[in-house]
Amino acid sequence: MASHGRNNKILLDLVQQPGNNLCADCAASEPDWASYTLGVFVCLNCSGLHRNLSTVNKVKSIRLDFWDDSLVQLMQERGNSSARAIFEKCVPAFYYRPNHDDCMVLKEQWIRAKYERREFTGEQNEFLQTYTLDLFTSTLWKKGKDKKQYLRRIFQLSQKDFTLRYFTKEDSKVAKTVISMKDLNAYFQPEKIGHAHGLQISYLEDERTRNLFVYHENGQVIVAFFNAIRATRFAYLLKKHPTLQHSDLIHQITKHSLKEGYMEKTGPTQREPFKKRWFTLCSVTRKLLYFKSPLDATDLGAVFIGSQDHGYTVSESSGRCTRSGRWHCGITLETPSRQFVFMCEQEQERREWLEAFGKVISQPMTPEDYANEATLRRGK
Predict the structure, then answer these.
(1) How far apart are CA 156 and CA 134, in angstroms?
(2) What is the DSSP annotation of 31-95?
(3) Helix (H) or strand (E) holding 26
(4) Which long-range contacts (CB under 8 A, 24 or more apart) does 10-15 make?
(5) What is d(CA 261, CA 294) in angstroms, rounded to the nearest whole number?
(6) Are the C-beta atoms of 180 and 157 separated by less than 8 Å?
(7) Would you give the distance in Å from CA 64 to the centre of its chain?
(8) What distance in Å separates the CA atoms of residue 58 and residue 35, rounded to the nearest whole number?
(9) Bridge partner residues of 302 (DSSP)
(10) 358 vs 86, 256, 282, 288, 331, CA distance in Å?
(11) What is the distance between the alpha carbons of residues 340 and 38, in angstroms, rounded to a whole number?
(12) CA proximity to 232, closest of 94, 59, 83
């Protein structure tokens, strides 16, 4: 006869073992739920997504729910490592594995791809083959450049010439825009875009950053498009760096911004009025971009942030010397060519920006960083 206390203690011991001590799907620490059909330990957020797979999955709390002896034995026999060997056997190197702080659509589609569609077990090769086709086409809703409405557009990824094209009509022969994979980035921005499946695509055009904002009502479609972008970018990077290992290229495929938000900035003489701008900091490109608003198509400017060894520093500054500034939590960014002064509305925001700037400045510069620094200086 099953003992509630004894069986729950067994499960609590199991979840402390290596492999089980992180959520099987998003790597969150201290998972306290489990799928007793799949034999995996998951966090609270992922357990809710598992419930949506009710035809293939059942979940329980390892602390609060009653567990039969037979189900406890199943968890002892399986566990996260065993499940990963089955359900993640053939995950491509380019495929994005979500973390606990990623948006819901990424985590949901990762879980559905693993357990519902069984894309990575080696049984359903047609799913993975679509990512390596010469052409990958998807119809998405794209925000108009100067308008708020979203328009239906056809996007086409090519692994022949490593480009992303989009067309205004299905029968269009000429693409509206052709984007090289060289400087393309994509990441989900549901809160900024105002849609749970919102995806931001950024790229360089005439040394300025351009943004496209797209979504699709179907989560599987938008995540497949995102991973197709990653597949095409990965193919480009492999050709550009044939001697590097896959592991050296993964972090270069797509990247999240390190920090985003509003700050006020002044001009180069620091006598100009402060203006509110939307800032985006990327640790990989070492660029601080600023826009008039979060959904602008083109940046107003960019600041390269090098390393401390090359004359870049960041520090708190007083807001007393501001000219018409409404915010008074100041930050001073010193570069070899100019001093920048920014103002945050709240002290907490200033601390977050100082930490983000500090992370970039503490990183040594690469040869590509030096080239990017020189390019930005020439453009000024």
Answers:
(1) 10
(2) --EEETTTTEEE-HHHHHHHHTTTTT--EEETTTS---HHHHHHHHH--HHHHHHHHTTT--TTS
(3) none
(4) 10/72, 10/76, 11/62, 11/67, 11/72, 11/75, 12/62, 12/63, 14/41, 14/75, 14/76, 14/79, 15/41, 15/62
(5) 8
(6) no
(7) 34
(8) 5
(9) 289
(10) 41, 17, 12, 13, 12
(11) 54
(12) 94
Q: How far apart are alpha carbons 284 and 258 in whole angstroms?
A: 9
pLDDT by residue for the chain (380 residues), tens only, comes to: 456 688 989 999 999 999 999 999 999 999 999 999 999 999 999 999 999 887 778 899 999 999 999 999 999 999 999 999 999 999 999 999 999 999 999 999 999 999 999 999 988 778 788 888 899 999 999 999 776 799 999 999 999 999 999 999 988 889 999 999 999 999 999 999 999 999 999 999 988 999 999 999 999 999 999 999 999 999 999 999 999 999 999 999 999 999 999 999 988 877 888 999 999 999 889 999 999 999 999 999 999 999 999 999 999 987 655 455 688 899 999 999 899 999 999 999 999 999 999 999 999 999 888 988 888 876 65
Report the predicted TM-score, pTM, of the whole model to 2 decimal places: 0.92
Specify the amino acid at residue 151: L
* Burial per residue of 170-204, b for 16 or more beta-carbon CB atoms within 10 angstroms, e otherwise: eeeeebebebebeebbbbbbbeebebbbbbbbbbb
**CA–CA separation, 223 vs 257, rounded Å?**
19
Give me the residues paired with residue 291 across strands.
278
| Residue 89 amino acid letter | K
DSSP secondary structure letters along 311-346: T-EEEEEESTT-SS-S--EEEEEE-SS-EEEEEESS
The CA dihedral of 321, 326, 330, 333, to the nearest 10 degrees, is -90
Using the Cα atoms of residue 251, residue 255, residue 261 and residue 265 in order, give the sign of their dihedral.
Answer: positive
C-alpha torsion angle, residues 7, 11, 13, 16 (rounded to 10): -170
